[in-house]
Prior knowledge:
Elements: H1 2-8, H2 14-28, H3 35-52, H4 68-74, H5 86-96
Helix pairs in contact: 2-3, 4-5
Amino acid sequence: MNINVLLNQASKNNSYLEKYATAGVILSGIDSESVEGNCLQLINILKDLIQKTKMPRLSTYGLKEEDFNKIVEKAAYRTNPADLTGEQASEIMRKRL
């Protein structure tokens, strides 16, 4: 979600995208020759890692969708390079529920 939001705001967040792209190149060993392509490589690597490590779902820890609003209200996204809306933050949690 962060990378997709940053790609839509690319003019403001180019340095963050370049960092994600560099991570994609380092982890994949392949340079796709574009920031967007390398960011997409990173996304695919992370999805694969989640599956391989069998990362537990948030519901394993008792989280429910009705908890999302409270989490979003209390969360401070100061260290997040993407300006996520509450709905986007909820969508991230929903995908891992």
